[in-house]
Amino acid sequence: MNSKKILITGVAGFLGSHLAEKLATIGHEIIGIDNMLGGYEDNIPKNIKFYNIDCCDLKEVKKIIKGVQIVYHCAATAHEGLSVFSPYEITKNNYLASISIFTAAVDEKVQRIIFCSSMARYGDQKTPFTEDMKPKPVDPYAISKVASEDCLINLCNLNGIEWVIAVPHNIIGPRQKYDDPFRNVISIMLNRMLQGKAPVIYGDGEQQRCFSYIDDCLDCLIPMLDQKNLNKQIINIGPDEEFVTINKVAEICTNLTGVNLKPIYKRDRPREVRHALCSSDKARKFLNYKTKTSLNEGINKTFEYIKKRGIRPFNYNIELEINNDLTPSTWKNKEI
Hints:
Elements lengths: L4 E5 L4 H12 L3 E5 L15 E3 L6 H7 L5 E4 L13 H22 L3 E5 L23 H20 L2 E7 L1 E3 L12 H9 L6 E3 L5 E2 L1 E3 H8 L11 E5 L6 E2 H12 L6 E3 L14 H7 L7 H15 L19 H4 L4
Parallel strand pairs: 1-2, 1-4, 2-3, 4-5, 5-6, 6-11, 7-10, 8-13
Antiparallel strand pairs: 9-12
């Protein structure tokens, strides 16, 4: 294996920290950056060079990207539902941050950029979502992700730089931020239940999702580093065998925690996609993808992490920019 110098954004976050640790362990030199908005300090791997900077700070990014060959852009303010009510903060931390990273990478003439997008790109089209579908984003978060993809392709194709777009399903596992009231439904439920509180569900709970355990996701992301036939590919990552409703997720969390409280049902969140399910056929073809960790196992490992690290109060660290009759009361009144 040829050792590479790799920049990973969002390295204090859930996905970025796992990816950095794994790549460093197998011999790569890792430069990690994070503004600490959506991560934990103890997530940052000890065997990397860490910079506490914002991806939007192009001048600082240009300073630390010298000599980097590969970029994994994992950083995002991945608050899809909240983006309807805090569109400025969410799109700034997704689109503008992405453009800053891509600009610095292109200027440094890196070999390849791997961009972690979102299945929100597909919107509410017929499922299962496949990579050949035209994106139809339905909220500001998804719009910012698709716009970032378009700019990545534009800049890379112009400058002869390889690109790969990874489209993860909902990832779960240890190190996921569980005190964020706006995202990560499973972690929110588990943190609440460990405090003796009932799970909160928006709508009727019959929304369908797939959840991917972090290790299964890494098995796909790591080959994207240099696998030749992945250049200029968009690839869904995650299981397509185990669709689950949010009601079922609440039931699994109840059985794990032993907190047998009926869910609290709230009004539907605006723009929430009813069924978000992706096909993993392309990942199987290009990456020999296999789901190794079941949903129950993944939730259990997430539960054990939160229990060991300790329950935490929810931190409303992103302001509501639009506060009206459509804004969920859970956020307006800090009910989570």
